[in-house]
């Protein structure tokens, strides 16, 4: 299926549709994945039109037609990292946000449900990470997967999404209170 036949803009997948505001839009599910050492797994991507601009973000992506957010979150985790989780291991959604960003030279909006998941097994998990499930588009824009200690992540100079992730994870490590936090609309600082 082509982007033109689905109404999605050139370069974007079929899950992107024109939103009410005219921007390409999709619903997405993401995972804040924390290991037994309280490190968070993030991906680093870059702007296809400005490769020197990079940022870190949580694992996740679009919700397919007929799929719920939890199923999408574990599917995206498997595709993007090779790690398998059961839907029941997800907590939340702990956060929701609407993200406005440039993707393939198009300004897009993505409404996200973000879940928390813990890996209880001790070990680094670096050897378990796989890029085998990455799509052609992901291979063009994604640069690496990395487990981040929270103190080190707090010191990075690159953008990290969602904004305030370090404080959010620290709060969640103390225990989720059952309240989904709504972060509103988040846009890159240079927009």
TrEMBL record:
Gene3D superfamilies from the UniProt entry: Nucleoside Triphosphate Pyrophosphohydrolase
GO MF, one annotated term: hydrolase activity
Record keyword Transport present: no
Domain Nudix hydrolase, chain residue ranges per copy: 24-174
Listed InterPro entries: Nudix_hydrolase, NUDIX_hydrolase-like_dom_sf, NUDIX_hydrolase_CS, NUDIX_hydrolase_dom
Any Pfam family: NUDIX
Keyword terms of this UniProt record: Hydrolase, Magnesium
Required cofactor names: Mg(2+)
Protein name listed in UniProt: RNA pyrophosphohydrolase
Organism listed in the record: mine drainage metagenome
Lineage: unclassified sequences, metagenomes, ecological metagenomes
Gene transcribed to yield this protein: rppH_9
